[in-house]
Write the structure tokens for this entry.
Amino acid sequence: MNTRPETLIPVIGVITDVRLDTPDIKTFRVVTPDGKKAFDHRPGQCAMLSIPGVGEAMFSITSSPTNTEYMEFSIKKCGCVTEWLHQAEVGQQITIRGPYGNPFPVDDEFVGKNLLFIAGGVGLAPLRSVINYCRHYRSKYGTIDIVYGSRSKEDLLQYREIIEEWATDEGINVHLTIDREQENWDGHVGFVPNYVKELGFDTNKTAVLCGPPIMIKFTLEGLRSLGFEKTQMYTTLELKMKCGVGKCGRCNVGSKYVCKDGPVFRFDELDELPDEY
Amino acid sequence: MQKITRDVLVSKAISLLEDGNVSHVLGWRKGEFDYDITPSVFSEKEDIENNFVWNDFCGANFSKYLVQKTRKLEGKILVFLKPCDTYSFNQLLTEHRFDRDNVYAVGIPCEGMADISKVKKICGEGISSIDFDGDNILVNTVYEDAPIVIDAKSVLSERCINCKSKKHVAFDELIGEEGEIIESGRFDEVEKLEKMTPDERFEFWQSELSKCIRCNACRDVCPACTCEKCVFDNPKSGVENKAPANSFEEKMFHIIRAFHVAGRCTDCGECSRVCPQDIPLHLLNRKFIKDIDNFYGEYQAGAEVGSRAPLVDYTTEDVEPSDIFEGRNG
Amino acid sequence: MFKSSLNSINEIFAKIAENATLYLPSDNKDGNAVYTKWENGVVWSNSLNTVKSPKDFFFPQVEDMMAFKTEGKNIEINDIREESEDFVVFGVRACDVRSFDILDRVFLVDPCDSYYANRREHGIIISVACTKPSETCFCKTFDIDATNPGGDITVWKTEDSLYWSANTDRGRELLSKLNLEECGDEAVNEQKAKTEAILNKLPLANLNTDGFGGDKTDALFDRPEWKTLSESCLGCGTCTFVCPTCQCYDIKDFNTGNQVIRYRCWDSCMYSDFTKMAHGNNRLSQVERFRQRFMHKLVYYPANNDGIFGCAGCGRCVSKCPISMNIVKVMKTLGGND
């Protein structure tokens, strides 16, 4: 047997809870077989989950590091691995390895700043980890604004947590929006980028964006028109990955590997890279 | 040496381009060492004058490029076709893979193409330049002061030794003298394989196919392989793979491919030409061609546009499946 | 420096093979050199180099990484590796020796790839200096000295003799067991001078790296020439699979019926599904995939590795590409070569 630790060999994880969040997103709670958290992580980091015989894929850890009991993953059904996970039941074992990538600078640049989180659809999954981390260490940060949009009310991820916990916290402003009018929705209707412009945030904030590329593109433009600098805006990228440790060679944007040098990037860092993400 | 000179092709290309008959020319682009020639699209007169080549190393068959190029490029494309290339051209038309109206095909005679690895077996490494003189190829190397003289016939590629046709079956215009269909010895090697015992034959293919590095060059160059999404690239197919995971898999890839192109393969020989491991892949295809000829009557894929291949056609004269089975065993 | 007669080479091979498996280039029935396990009767090839590079020894095309057994909802993970045996690779050329350094900088940096590291620790490299380089060679472009190839032991070949010199402790240990006669280095220097004269006459002798390097992303990424350079690329994996430095891999599962084997295999950035995810692909066209391969070797790799280029100039892609498009043509088109 080999004694050298091998990062590509996973450990076993057990799904202890499955929550249907939206019609196509489920949140899975994962622990080790002896009921512990598989490993520590920082907000924004990812883990490789796999089902032997189906495949392995990278997912952002949506639970906060301050949760020391388990990890959660909010996963949208869209490929082989995710389709398989969506039919998995409580008690199912999977494999897990990580954590991978660099976290959001929650203990550096974010400290003392007003924070603006902007998410679209399943893009809330990685931000939830940061938001709950910042809520846990609330006094380290200034005001917190959260703009979150999805196709419909049913497509809003973690809706109950947002309404019951985030929206009731002091100093946190939650702004929800959905793409089209629907019954029993009296909140805002419209796309995220437009809503951000309507809300007209002052630039005394650090912004964190995550969502579909088209949302990112127009939100970025919107924030720029409000006077935000690229050095005060962050996002997290997703590209195809196999190893998670910068060796399999496919998640690079220019000389940077998303798995190792990202997935968190500041927009001025992205400007240095070729437009291939 | 080729009978038609480069200059004839260059002036033909330039005149068609300047007259506005075509917008692009699919031709062979000069490389670093006189033999490493790249298929290329030319659109400028100057580029053609400086970089177009035609010599004994212009083996690439352009027919398959027409599938992509006719979709991407505006205007008509001039394509130069050697006799064997015209069969692939017709076969692709039969399969509706490109629009004939977007192509101007000029048939050019071919004296057979040289195999650079055969040349190197004679002259060694260090080629600095190659010239052509009548039936000879003159190779200058950094190791010898005088050129090494090689008889062009002795370094012909296998597919050219067994050339099946000097006749063009498709063209808008012909340059040079038209040739004839040739009674080639192309099935001789197949017959040798047929004479082997099943164990010997298995041994032969096992040893050949175990060299495969699964680079897919044979498939990617093959004019009969024009599926938009190959089954071997499709994760949902269950056979998608990037490496010969075991000896079963490496055989499966080539055998399935041979089955898939059976009746459509024109025997252009590109698969064997590009194989970095020198696997004689064409022998698999020729076995199919020979069997089809044998069981259903002689049929040459690509000989005419629109012909129905025996394997996708039914006639009451068709051989009974049981006869085929016996034929295989006999 | 030690000396042996060329005639006694099989006795030396036998001695090396007493303690470790020995691999060396030997011609197969097609006349192509292939790394072959030495046993009595296996003849060292006269070819300049092997078709496939020796990277296989450390980073094999396919390797099983682990096995899973599943029962109901439960999974068992088994590390199925066996400790590598000691082995010796003889006949490695300077370009391929460099390739190991290029691969080391990927696989051995934190977090270390233990599959690769194990093999690397168990492998002794005996290089052989080039005497008859090919027109496709351009190792000099990357400051590689084909007459002084390195590795654990360097061997120089003359008409009738072999000269041996150890470069590492492992090399010295192995060399001391071979009981060779000590000698001066005059013959080696003479041979080196001869080869150098040839190297300077090669058609690619003046190929340079001007215009490339870690800081050249902006200057090169949007160059219009990528389109014409890649226009006839077949998108096959020949260049990547014969390349000694291409290191991209895929991880896949294979269900054998009673267990699932997770294996790693070479992948190619030229393949259309290389970056394809369930919901998108950031390199949709062959131009982008082609550009990635050369940007990786000439810009991204040096950016991450102290300016060292990710190409060793072995020329395999130059001779094997089905359409004869290669890094030399890319460098001549985009760089500072005339």
Q: What stands out?
A: Residues 2-53+82-201 of chain C form one domain. The first helix of chain C runs from residue 9 to 19.
